[in-house]
Amino acid sequence: MDLPLFLQQLLNGISLGSLYALIAIGYTMVYGIIRLINFAHGDVLMVSTYFTYFGISVYALPWWLSVIIAILLTALLGILIDLGAYRPVRHAPRVSALITAIGVSFLLENLGLVVFGGRPKAFYRPDFLNKTYELAGVHVFSLSIWVPLVTALLLVLVFLLLYRTRVGAAMRAVAKDMEMVQLMGVDVNRVISLAFAVGSALAAAGGIMWAMKYPQINPLMGIIPGLKAFVAAVLGGIGNIHGAVLGGFLLGVMEILLVAFLPSLAGYRDAFAFILLILILLFRPTGLVGKGASG
Amino acid sequence: MSDWRGRDRTYRLCAYGSILCLFAFLFLVENYADEYQIRILNVSAIFVTMAVSYNLINGVAGQFSLGPNAFMAVGAYTTALLTISPAEKELCFIIEPIIWPLSVLHLPFLPSLLIGGTFAALLGFIMAFPVFRVRGDYLAIVTLGFGEVVRVVANNTQSITNGPLGLKGLPEYTNLWWSWGVAVFTVFCVTRLVKSSFGRAMQAIREDEVAAAAMGINVFRHKMLAFVVHAFFAGMAGGLMAHLVTTISPTLFSFFLTFNLLVIIVIGGLGSMTGSIIAAIIITYAGEWLRAVEEPMAIGPFNIPGIPGMRMVVFAIMLILVMIFARQGLMGRREFSWEWFCGFLRTGERRG
Amino acid sequence: MSRKLIFLIPVFVIPCLLFFLPSSSLASEPIRIGVYLPMTGPVAAFGQMEWAGIQTAHQMRPTVLGRQVELVLVDEKSDRIEAANAVSRLLKKEKVQAIIGSATSSNTMAGAALSEKAKIPMVSPTATLPLVTQNKKYVFRVCFIDSFQGEAAARFAYRNLRARRVAVIVDRAQDYCVGLASYFKRAFTHLGGKVVSMAYCQTGDQDFSAQLTSILASQPGLLYLPNYYTEDALIVRQAQELGLNVPVLSADGAQAPELIKIGGKAVEGLYLLAHFAPEGATTPLAKEFMESFKKSREETSGFHALGADAYFVLLDAIKRAGCTNGDAVRTALASTRGFGGVSGVITIGPDGNAVKSAVILQVRGGQFRYLTIVKPW
Fold it and tell me: Cβ contact (<8 Å) for C5 and B345?
């Protein structure tokens, strides 16, 4: 394989990886604070794409406005899920919380089938994302450039929130020692709600870009991105935000390169992520970056 | 002492008697009920088998596995590949021909079913080494991962599993005798195991792994035992399922199946075999009743739109509510016993 | 103890009785025709279009032999196990006298085994795989079969599009796609062309960059996509994104509005081999059907037409049989000759397959336009 083609695939990998990274942050934030694998995270992403779809196709709003509204609504959905389903089981055994999360995931998927119908819907893609440039033999698709750029912007915002604001400090503190922080007078429940809101909003951003990349949405579309992003979070060390970002990019690039250079193994693409996950858990359960770097 | 022994004998007679009643009932059903009802009864039996064996690892040994679909897939594919006639296989594999030993193998149902269970158990044995290095929710995720890997492998090993096209033309072997026979056998084996010293050790591990290890229990070996037994029966259930629907493909063994089982054992009560049996039957029938809600029905000039997905919405809400309000499920960790049953009758007599 | 027992008896007996309750099997006047179609899931568009066609046909001809016809629809959810369940429900619980279904070959085969056993005639609107009716006495269809479709597509690609090097992407989860691809390959090679690359994907896949990258390297002059509309739309879009700009030829499984909605500008100019084009319709029944169908405000597609044809052909057979006895209807179906259906003149061959011609459509201005007709051998 020649260099231009390699660069092209690398760019594809980075653009896929940035989506994984955005989604993985939500997993890692929630796990870092309440030690819960939020199974429904991928389905929250699915709902966000439908919010956007309804904004554009039904209410005929401009696409950027629909996207913003969808992201806000999804953040709200994240908070509501926490309030309705996870808070009542917060002090139950962890397995009960996990079962609840699986239940929420199936609830969202099937509610999606009931409300939106099973027939896939075409998703809007703005024209400026539709262009193909040719640079020295490399076909560059404009979407593949925009996705990492938007991701980088969002990541800067998240890190500003975490390290430059009081709530960010509270979030990091809660992740370190919830009881102690509670004793110091911080409203832990509000911090947890915020984590759900931020995580869901990022998932929404990732999901909407996912839907623009593969311009078709259906109620079960969140499962695969959700699972892969979870693997990315574990890969980077779950509970660690830097790690989740790194894990997302690594997984995206590895996946695309595997498919590009060993097309005969393309069918094993989804298994690859899980084999990686199993290996990581067995040999380096704390992930590549390890714990403690941040909340 | 003699009184205790006498009562024990009575209870055993009761147990044999009730099994006899069950089979008499099945005989009646087979001869007088229609095919649709027989089908649902078959499905209930298969779910009983799966739920009871799944509860062994999740409820009794307390290792929260999310991978029973992997074992069912292995059991189903192994059994199916052994029972489909060579001629039928040749028709089935249209992209790549089936590899050699499988192309000529052809066995009756019972040995195929046992081999299917054995292969699943073998997979369980191999999986146990990596899986039990982790605990809790990590274990859940690793087993979920294995389930997905098995499905992806089945999708891609074209010359063994026929890939996503799946296998067709399986002989319709599963009937009430097979399905309920295996179910009764499973319940018998698993309850005996739970009551044995092995079972006690598993429960000790569930309650406190460190303390159990300190008492001299070989933690890994007991977890492994529970896992392999679970795998074996799940594999058999998979084989029965395959020969009931007579066509299988990897999508049949997705996480969706695991979810159904999870609903059953959670509603029945994690750790209670009685609960699993009751819940398996209730959920199977509830699923059939709720199916009516899902289907668009055109009766005469009226066209009632169905609400597809409604069934799973109900189950998902049920699961969440049970977790929030009634974590013990129907039975908690209690079991049905003849002692309790006779006691129940006797108190009724006294009151009456 | 005895009193307690008396209390317990109903607890055990009532559920037992429930099993034996007769399931509403009163001899009713209307003729019940079961319909099983994918109303949800990946190929729901087919089911919904065919159902719309069947309903319109039913409104046009609601009676036969002086009796009302009653349609019973069951969703098979684009899943072959659900398809088997659906047919078993139609046969055992709804006690239908004939069945229409299903849209795709894999799922029709899952149901066909059951109706064959029950000796209830079944007519599929669009299951095109030859295997569907093979060795089946009670299974029929009103569409052409894939061995013809593959051959016709190869002829069109070779003669009209002058393609010599063709790349194919096949959905290997569908019997229909796999079968069609192999018929195409055989015919195209026979004509002197070459299939330079054969790549596989799977229903539900979203990313085809791996397959397209390897196809790009083989420099084809035409891309043949014998798949369903969702996959085809995404493949065509991603092909353009990767810079693969060659003509695309697709099959009857792609003729759905979703192809254009999801594919957008990328599917402009795509060729499609299909069952039916409104512009090419000639029979009186077709004109009447399109007139009644106008109410639904949807463009008449092959799936509407074939859904209606399945109903009309079945009704015609029941009329000629004079009763709803499974064997009599079967014999009548098998002797259908020159029936003027919506999608053309239908003759059922000895193997239960319809013999008829195909049309070539092209996507222009966001719509399927009639281009030409391809006659049977």
Answer: yes
Q: Assess contact for A42 and A226: CB atoms under 8 A.
A: yes
Among left, alpha and beta (phi > 0; psi -120 to 50; other), residue C277 is beta
- Chain C residue numbers with beta carbons less than 8 Å from the beta carbon of A5 are 213
Convert the pLDDT of each residue in A227-242 to its tens digit. 999 999 988 888 888 9
Terminal CA-to-CA distance of chain A, rounded, Å?
A: 41
CA distances from C46 to A139, C215, C334 (A): 36, 29, 25
- Cβ atoms of A39 and A104 closer than 8 Å: yes
Contact C98, C45 (CB under 8 A): no
Strand partners, C340: C345
CB-CB under 8 Å, C202 with A214 = no
Give the pLDDT confidence score for residue B134 in this predicted structure.
86
pTM of the model: 0.85
Please compute the mean of the pLDDT values over residues B174-189 and round it to a whole number.
94
| DSSP string for A219-253 | TTTTHHHHHHHHHHHHHH-TT-HHHHHHHHHHHHH
Which backbone phi and psi does C64 adopt, to 5 degrees?
A: -150, 145
Q: Does A274 touch chain B (CB under 8 A)?
A: yes
Phi/psi for C128 (5° steps) reads -100, -5
ipTM entry: 0.88
Closest alpha carbon within chain C to A129: C241
Beta C165-171 vs C194-201: how paired, if at all?
Answer: parallel
Dihedral sign for Cα C104, C107, C111, C112, please: positive
pLDDT at residue B220, as a whole number: 95
Cα torsion through C180, C185, C187, C191, rounded to 10: 150
Separation between Cα atoms, residue C155 and residue C150, nearest integer Å? 9
pLDDT at B228: 97
Could you tell me if A47 and A206 are in contact, meaning their C-beta atoms sit under 8 angstroms apart?
A: no
- Distance CA(B160)–CA(B146), nearest Å, equals 19
Q: How many Cβ atoms sit within 10 Å of the Cβ of residue A90?
A: 14
Measure the CA–CA gap between C69 and C62, rounded to whole angstroms.
6
Residues of chain A contacting B136 with CB distance shorter than 8 Å: 94-95
CA-CA-CA-CA torsion sign (C254, C255, C261, C266): positive
C372 compared with C2, residue with greater pLDDT: C372
Q: What b/e sequence results for C330-347 when a residue is b if at least 16 CB atoms lie within 10 Å of its CB, and e otherwise?
A: bebbbebeebebbbbebe
Strand C67-75, strand C139-141: pairing: unpaired
Closest B-chain CA to C131: B91
Q: Name the nearest CA neighbour of C131 among B92, B203, B34.
A: B92
If you count residue pairs, one on A and one on B, with CB atoms under 8 Å apart, how many are there? 111
- Is B156 at the interface with chain A, CB within 8 A? yes
What tokens appear for C289 in the block?
């059907």
pLDDT of residue B299: 55
Query: Is C112 near chain B, with CB under 8 Å?
Result: no
pLDDT over threshold 80, residue A207: yes
B148 → closest Cβ in A85, A97, A271: A271
Residue type, A82: D
Max CA distance (Å), chain B? 73
CA A51 – CA A217 distance, rounded (Å): 11
Q: Which of A202-216, C3-17, C340-354 has the lowest mean pLDDT?
A: C3-17
Are C176 and C253 in contact by the 8 Å Cβ rule? The answer is yes
C255 vs C251: CA distance, rounded Å = 8
Q: Which residues of B touch A227 (CB under 8 A)?
A: 148
